[in-house]
């Protein structure tokens, strides 16, 4: 295992960016370990860093600096009847307006899905939402929606189903290797930037 130690300090602690499987797996949650095992099984390289809980985009900015990648905003949504569920990946600097998305996916009255559905379908708690949680959606209840701008970046940052760790992987590995392996397809959407509104 190769360790790359960066002087990115957060409240006096030095965070480490590691290539591959992190150390001390026995102290990690099972859902996090499952992510690392699947990525290694698929031979998807990644860099990993542990940090204090990062459940907001502001907290993720410090991790972005360390990993030199922009963490996506991940929104877990549903229709009014709570029968259709969506995971939206979008740039953190964009504001989400339901009307911009509803027309593109043919689902009116979108709202945030409750934490019970997040746990049930993705095995993720609020604040830890991640595209990698789709590995737990064995019945394909969740449709992945990706803002086109996310796909323009070479790398993508996300949590390994817990918000005390972050990963950096190639965007093409996510779209071309991970998603087919977990039997999910993405729908590309366009969410306007502020200057377009």
TrEMBL record:
Record-annotated membrane-spanning stretches: none
Molecular function GO terms recorded: aminoacyl-tRNA deacylase activity; ligase activity
SUPFAM superfamilies for this protein: YbaK/ProRS associated domain (SSF55826)
Pfam family, any one: tRNA_edit
Keywords: Ligase
Protein family membership: Belongs to the PRORSD1 family.
Protein name: YbaK/proline--tRNA ligase associated domain protein
Organism expressing this protein natively: Blautia hansenii DSM 20583
């Amino acid at each position: 295992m190769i360790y790359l130690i960066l002087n990115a300090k957060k409240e006096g602690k030095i965070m480490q960016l590691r290539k591959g499987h992190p150390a001390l797996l026995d102290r990690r949650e099972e859902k996090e370990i499952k992510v690392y095992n699947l990525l290694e099984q698929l031979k998807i390289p990644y860099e990993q860093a542990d940090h204090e809980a990062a459940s907001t985009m502001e907290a993720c900015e410090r991790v972005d600096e360390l990993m030199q990648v922009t963490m996506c905003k991940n929104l877990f949504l549903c229709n009014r009847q709570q029968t259709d569920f969506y995971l939206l990946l979008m740039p953190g600097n964009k504001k989400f307006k339901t009307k911009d998305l509803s027309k593109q996916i043919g689902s009116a009255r979108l709202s945030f899905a409750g934490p019970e559905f997040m746990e049930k379908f993705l095995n993720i708690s609020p604040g830890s939402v991640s595209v990698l949680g789709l590995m737990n959606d064995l019945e394909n209840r969740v449709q992945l929606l990706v803002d086109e701008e996310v796909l323009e970046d070479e790398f993508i940052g996300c949590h390994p189903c817990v918000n005390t760790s972050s990963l950096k992987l190639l965007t093409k590995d996510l779209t071309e290797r991970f998603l087919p392996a977990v039997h999910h397809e993405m729908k590309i959407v366009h969410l306007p930037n502020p200057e377009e509104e």
